[in-house]
Amino acid sequence: MLFEGGATISFGTISEDAGKWEKVLEWRNGGEETLVITRVTTTCSCLQAVADKGAVKRGGKSAIRLAYYPKGHPGKVEQRVFVYTNLSSSKPTAIVTLKGVVTPSADHSTDYPYHRGELRLRRDTLHLIGDRSQTERIACLNSGTRAMRLVADSMLSSRGLSLRTEPEVLPAGGEGDLLVTYTPEKDAKRPLWLKLYIKGLALPLREREIYIKIESEEK
Q1: Residues 15-35: pLDDT tens digits?
Q2: What is the pTM of this model?
Q3: In whole angstroms, what is the distance from residue 38 CA to residue 43 CA?
């Protein structure tokens, strides 16, 4: 199997956001025997290869269609395509190597799986230990087109909870942290669960909740 341009292919540098990269890889039968591709496998599900069907006689031509999906695979790429024919069921007749570099996506929204409207969170439940004052951070992303200024809704949130953000105003498309502080009341019975309602989001009440679980001090 003689590949046009050789058996090593480079797609250069592409972004995770570029979508599917495709190439039609043409080859010629330079041997004496008729070739029939029986199967094609790759070293990663991100690389797909589909061969044209049919027998290829000596001197004949055919093609393999490649599709590479860069999303989720930033960094240096070196993947292989194994082409099996009627010559052997266990040993590939040809090996094609795909190389290149994938630059990281500019879209970090997949790092924040929890949604509060346009506010995206790394997590949406907090675990606090004991009856002491403490502050926990939640990494967040403003996926909207307007800046956000967020605080705790003091009228609805459980007692002792407060909220601020770093930075104080989350810019459109910007990342930051929610800082949730719990200050328990003296001599009050320790609750098992608290609810924090975020003020500054144009959402129904239940869609502005963050749950906080209070756990016992470790002994």
Answers
A1: 988 889 999 999 999 999 999
A2: 0.55
A3: 17
